[in-house]
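Researcher: We plan to redesign the surface later, but first we want a full-length starting point. Tokens attached.
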């Protein structure tokens, strides 16, 4: 059936309860104090993203006119990314048991009409490890397709506290965020949504 979830795709609704979401939000706020949100721009065109970003962990994902890449420092402050909070390492250990440790946690901050177009995550040197994502704040209307851009897509909601694990065939699936549902969560002081995406970037064989 074309509309089944791909192999390796796991949605864990409510993985983090309200109290755990509050604690995680505190960790994110302290990361963002040290590594302020920046506005990435599209390679070549310089068109700004509608989502603002930061990172924690040894490597962070950035996008500028030169391209997409992982780097060990913040693009504006030049400082090393803050350490990945223990709770996120524990999440990875729980849901990505067989994979080497995560190297990057991308923090996406959505406000208002922010969205993310359909894309694949393929800036990593290895696709063996899953991608693990955590949603906080307003519910997102999320779109998941197949490994070909033209494959059919399905849409579903990601709510605060939900965890997604994208392993196996789903690791290279096209995906995006169509929109937020304003007022769907009271976790953040204003409206908005935070998504945390944990990734292994280098393969163990190639070293860092
Ligand atoms: C499906 N972020 O940062 S998270 C991204 O909600 C990204 O901010 C979205 O796509 C967000 O690259 C979606 C869920 C997600 C993350 C990675 C995936 C779904 C995925 C990789 C493959 C397939
Ligand atoms: Fe993505």
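Model: Full-length starting sequence:
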């Amino acid at each position: 059936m074309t509309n089944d979830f791909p192999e390796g795709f796991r949605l864990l609704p409510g993985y983090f309860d309200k109290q755990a979401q509050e604690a995680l939000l505190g960790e994110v706020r302290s990361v963002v104090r040290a590594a302020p949100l920046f506005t990435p721009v599209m390679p070549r065109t310089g068109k700004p993203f509608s989502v603002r970003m930061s990172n924690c962990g040894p490597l962070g994902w950035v996008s500028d006119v030169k391209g997409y890449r992982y780097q060990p420092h913040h693009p504006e402050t030049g400082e090393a990314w803050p350490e990945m909070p223990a709770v996120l390492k524990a999440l990875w250990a729980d849901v990505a048991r067989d994979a080497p440790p995560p190297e990057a946690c991308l923090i996406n901050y959505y406000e208002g009409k922010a969205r993310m177009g359909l894309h694949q995550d393929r800036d990593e040197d290895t696709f063996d490890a899953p991608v693990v994502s955590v949603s906080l704040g307003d519910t997102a209307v999320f779109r998941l397709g197949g490994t070909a851009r033209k494959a059919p897509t399905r849409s579903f909601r990601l709510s605060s506290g939900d965890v997604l694990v994208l392993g196996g065939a789903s690791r290279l699936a096209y995906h995006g965020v169509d929109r937020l549902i304003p007022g769907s969560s009271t976790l953040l002081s204003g409206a908005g949504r935070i998504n945390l995406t944990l990734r292994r970037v280098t393969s163990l064989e190639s070293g860092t």
